[in-house]
């Protein structure tokens, strides 16, 4: 027994002497660049946010807005107009983007080289068949290694022919009656409470990283011009009380904000609806979302390589991406 | 026709000229009967006339029927043999081994080690020196010894993975008794499979590859285990902080057959299991965590005659980790159990038959099998009133196996011409990554497996090599290797030329040059480069091309008196179709086919290497320095621009010294290593994105914040100007060891004490960006603090070990 204790003591000394240590390293310098953020779709007028990148060791979330930028927009090489500054780095133009047109943006600001970007709005499939089987609970091991119950949603659509397509699926619950006992992350302009539901799929078409999160990102490489059926497992609305993280005090920096209407024509109802929120997104936007997710996911792994978020802004950072949205009602309660 | 007759007459005359007395045989160690490789054979005037091959076979043609020939090799006394025969003779030449720490003055002659040999970028590693090196935790390790050689470096500190001239670990062909080993690591790379005590010969080719080797781009590491003594039984037991080892060798039939058997078992599991059980108990959890590894290696040799020999070799080793926990709720009579397992291991076995034909032909036939398997599983169960309520099991499995039939011939036509040729057929089976998912919940049962794709591949290879040495001052080794690799219906043929040449400026000085083209038909999918068991071996397919490499070498070699040998080598290497995971893809988040997760690109490396080696003497060791530049380029990474390789360490300096002290049986040794910092990608700035862009991702970010406290970017994300833009701090450390041996009652007992990282240098292990909320008393609220932080460990680690030989 004494010998055992002596060994343990020696072992403790050795481990302590050889224990890990942290050394702080100065963060390398960076080159200031313009950051452009603009997602456009046929249902909203043009809005572009301009800021500049900032030091990595800054201690707040406050962006460095650029308020004196000059922004020009072209539609199929025709000058569409110059955007006007409003507030918080936002520049607006009261026109709606159109499907099938190529858009180009140029932004110049004192002290920065001019940046530009091009993109267009992809076509979204119109016909969907969807079922959500609440009688078929499926146990899934989530990221925390816990077994949770999910219900399969079967979604079938026809791929848009003769082009490379990129899709994003999320599941949104709209609570018009304050029936859900959880603080909502979003509120739409009608005051309805919006929740994102967890989704998970084993479908091999889905880029692996997006399986870890509350969205499904994929391209059409494996089903070009064909019907595609994707089955994903969706969180039950009732599990929200347990499954969704409560908003923290610190989040007040980011909340409240106004969620733009997911579809202006969607009628308001005094009940709980669940939608599959289906997006056709441009390749640039797809790569932007995907690399963002990868970067966020990899930060937990010290051995992983840092991945830059892909940007289509030439000479700068950010995203200029087109998308089109389709909301599919799958459940109404 | 006239021309044809002249050619035939010339050939006939040529043959007649050399149809003299042929003396052939095998060079062996006197004490044990072990074969000795690469022995230099000289005539009476000291002129080199032949070199025995890797298996000790030699064949010399003698002009005079009465002649003395001399055999010499580092570590052995020079042996002179008088030949008085009118007929061809086959003989075994026994050489007496000498203590490699013998006083240098007592050494009368040294064979030429570097300057005179025909090979380029080849180092015969002195196993005896490796045994005296300071170690990590007292575990002697061949691969860690190799990391001190010029042009070879490690990946992460403390691990056995080796990177040769800008290559990655999968580009090293590691042969154990001529059989490839696919994962050479224990304990996540901290120790390798091979303790030096079981090895007879270790040689490393960093370039100038002989035609008989193929399939890997960067190096061939050939290890031969001891045959075992034919004369006497020897036993050895070693106890260290990490493991215990034994070895036993001796004659099964005296003078004819021998056995060598060695094993190792780690202690970690014996310590971990009770310690973790105690820790869990404090948290009212029933369970434990454990980790251990073991090796068993053996060889049986049988000498059928002077010309025939048979070997049976095997190796098996396994790592196993387990975490088992269970909780019980008494009020609900509910039991929850979780059982996580990780295990991996290698098996190799081979049967070799060596035969000498016609005194000039040596042949070896090999039939062997090698396998590497990895399994990880997680099982969670819940029972109520001892009735199973639910269970979930997730398992991942991968495997590679290789069945090899190989025939090699070595033909010593004359002292001017030597031919080597051979054939190899290999059938590989890859099962890269199978995911199994089983679940039982209420009335529902799911049993699914993903990616159960087996790749069966065949490799057919043949080679021919000609060594032409018309003058002592000049040699030309030219070879060609043809390979045909097929997998799942696709074939990849290749012709791979190899050429090495030597021009000796004098007896001790030479200039050599070499070129080799080599193809690699299998890839290792790895995220970390650490040599983790989760790394997956995959074949070239119709989607993923084989990788290839061209390498050119120019070297200057000089052997100083008293056994000091030096070399300076410059190399330039290009690599095509090297593989890398797509950005962010990894084994861990994969349900999809690996072929969709990887990209292929180019690599290039060039450098200059200096080596000063003193293999014998009271004071022995080496110093090496290399300066190198290694880059990679992938279409989808870094905008297709060249970027530094992760382990592009510009300067590497290594020194090893072993000093025999005046008092008998005491040796002090030290190694010092300096490497420029590894390259990593470090973000330098943040980009803001307003919420309406990330609206749909907000839930994602929230989730991540909950999970990972090191990152709170929220709607900010980080940018790096280019891949691997940052150089970590340099790595350096000094290790020392003191060895004390005593013979008591014919048993040699040795204590070894040592310290890893004597001056406690905090070397960078990895680097990460910490971002977290911290309360700022000046502002009175929480702010985000970011800091780039290097993590160090293995700081000042003492060890001891104890050996007994009897």
What does this structure look like?
- The complex is a heterodimer of chains A (333) and B (806).
- Chain A is mainly beta and 333 residues long.
- Chain A has two domains: 34-120, Immunoglobulin-like (Sandwich), CATH 2.60.40; 128-309 and 323-332, no CATH class.
- Chain A contains three helices and 22 strands.
- In chain A, strands 2, 3, 5, 8, 9, 15, 16, 17, 19, 21 and 22 form an eleven-stranded mixed beta sheet that branches.
- The relative contact order of chain A is 0.18.
- Mean pLDDT of chain B is 84; it is low at 11-18, 105-112 and 693-714.
- Chain B has six helices and 48 strands.
- With 806 residues, chain B is mainly beta.
- The interface between A and B is large, with 95 and 96 residues.
- Strand 1 (21-25) of chain A pairs antiparallel with strand 47 (781-792) of chain B, so a sheet runs across the interface.
Task: Sum up the structure in keywords.
heterodimer; A: 333 residues; mainly beta; Immunoglobulin-like; 2 domains; 11-stranded mixed β-sheet; 3 helices; globular; B: 806 residues; Maltoporin, Chain A; 22-stranded antiparallel barrel; 5-stranded mixed β-sheet; 48 strands
What's the arrangement of secondary structure elements?
The complex is a heterodimer of chains A (333) and B (806).
Chain A: H1 2-17, E1 21-25, E2 34-40, E3 46-52, E4 54-55, E5 64-65, E6 70-75, E7 78-82, E8 84-85, E9 90-93, E10 102-109, E11 112-120, E12 128-132, E13 138-141, E14 147-158, E15 166-175, E16 186-187, E17 193-197, E18 199-200, E19 216-219, E20 227-235, H2 240-243, E21 272-281, H3 283-298, E22 317-332
Parallel strand pairs in A: 2-22
Antiparallel strand pairs in A: 2-3, 3-5, 3-9, 6-7, 6-10, 8-9, 10-11, 12-14, 13-14, 14-20, 15-17, 15-19, 15-21, 16-17, 18-20, 21-22
Chain B: H1 2-18, E1 21-29, E2 40-42, E3 48-51, E4 57-62, E5 66-72, E6 79-84, E7 89-95, E8 122-125, H2 127-132, H3 142-146, E9 152-154, E10 162-164, E11 172-176, E12 179-180, E13 185-186, E14 191-192, E15 199-205, E16 219-225, E17 234-240, E18 243-253, E19 257-266, H4 268-282, E20 286-303, E21 308-329, E22 334-357, E23 361-384, E24 387-412, E25 417-441, E26 444-450, E27 455-471, E28 474-487, E29 490-506, E30 509-520, E31 522-525, E32 536-539, E33 547-560, E34 564-581, E35 598-614, E36 619-634, E37 643-644, E38 651-660, E39 666-675, E40 679-680, E41 685-688, H5 691-694, H6 698-707, E42 716-719, E43 726-727, E44 731-744, E45 747-756, E46 766-776, E47 781-792, E48 797-805
Parallel strand pairs in B: 1-7, 11-16
Antiparallel strand pairs in B: 1-4, 2-3, 2-5, 5-6, 8-15, 9-10, 11-12, 13-14, 15-16, 17-18, 17-48, 18-19, 19-20, 20-21, 21-22, 22-23, 23-24, 24-25, 25-26, 25-27, 27-28, 28-29, 29-30, 30-33, 31-32, 33-34, 34-35, 35-36, 36-37, 36-38, 38-39, 39-44, 40-43, 41-42, 44-45, 45-48, 46-47
